[in-house]
Amino acid sequence: MTHTPGTAPVWDALGGDPALLPRISYRTRAGSLPARLPVIAAARACVGACALAGAELAATRAGRPVADVLVDDGAVATAFTSERQLLIDGRAPVNFAPLSRFWRTADGWLRTHANYPHHRARLCAALGVGADATVEEVAALLAGRSAYEVEETVYAAGGLAVALRTPEQWAAHPQGVAVAARPLLTRDRLDEAAPRAARGASAPRVLDLTRVIAGPVATRTLALLGADVLRVDTPRLPEDPDAHADTGFGKRSTRLDLADSADRRAFEELLTGADVVVTGYRPGALDRFGLTPEALVERRPGLVVASLSAWGAYGPWGGRRGFDSLVQVATGIAAVEGSPAEPGALPAQALDHGTGYLLAAGVLRALTDQARDGGSRVLRCALTQTAGWLLNAPRPADPEGPEGPEAVGGAPDPGHRLAETDSALGRLRYAPSPVSFVGGPADWARPPGRWGTDEPSWAPRG
Questions:
Q1: Which residues, listed in sequence order, are joined to residue 427 by a DSSP beta bridge?
Q2: E strands within 106-160?
């Protein structure tokens, strides 16, 4: 028997019709994303639900039955490590900066995140070391400090550091208690806006206000399925070019400073033609620009708004910054995957990728529901909620591999699953999307372009 969180609970959380679940078939492969926790099963469930939601929306728009879906563990495992599979003219990106790592402290372990220059600067300032501090210097300093004290000191300075906790410690933490009270994702209808045309309608237009992995994975998936996705970034906060190369497939990318009146007018003009807005910034960070779900749907009734955060937009950590690696440490995943000697990590940024596919699935289902019943729709996901779902799922009997007798073949080799294309960024080797259904797209319509170089306008509708 395969130990798995299962697609059915995910599909139920999305409000999907359970009668559609038999449309999904699975090709399981032993050794995919091996871990103590059921990572491949969770990944499979997220991708399966997303693919089924895509097939359902396509069927609604075309006026035909819902197509069959195939979920292949090899494709899922490869896609969940897409940032590691990427090559740009033969060069492999660096996924973690030197100061993004575990540190031994006087009372346990600490993990920091300093991939972005402004996060590194805040971390170093909070620790009282120079901006050019070495790993050895920081390690010596932290060895004599409390992980919990450093966590609070760095957070107060706007940096990112999280003390290692066990699942039991996280369950007792006020933020852990708040997260446990939430479902995997939340779905709300805010009003009685009229349905938008579905059959034969043009591709949905998506404003993408996300960064790093989870949010961009969601919008990358929407782009695969035909959405006109325009990523909007502030020119004040450049994106990692390698992260953009990985998650920019199928999209266009522009820069707007919402504090500038002309750029703000350009954004409002985009909003008048949008069907979906996806946000992935720290909760509250965009509120001053009128980008709360309530403010957005007031200006654009019938909109689907999807928001993503690390810790959840509630509880004592609701306003904190966060990343997948830090959520693994706080929630106890790193303790479960580690050893008595040191903490561990999941075999992929599975919270990011899994939540990304969940968010995309939620948008697809919301578009289907909106076309049928109208209403402005709001979805909310958090990496901690995905982490809680994973931690509470039945664990594999064999800690080295979560698959049971139905699995076929050995550990998947991603090599034959990768694709290559030319782009404005160079020759790219990349992981194709694992989202697949009969009659659906096989690949993205366009490779990533250069970050922030497209006009702030929608593509013409046919």
A1: 422
A2: 108-112
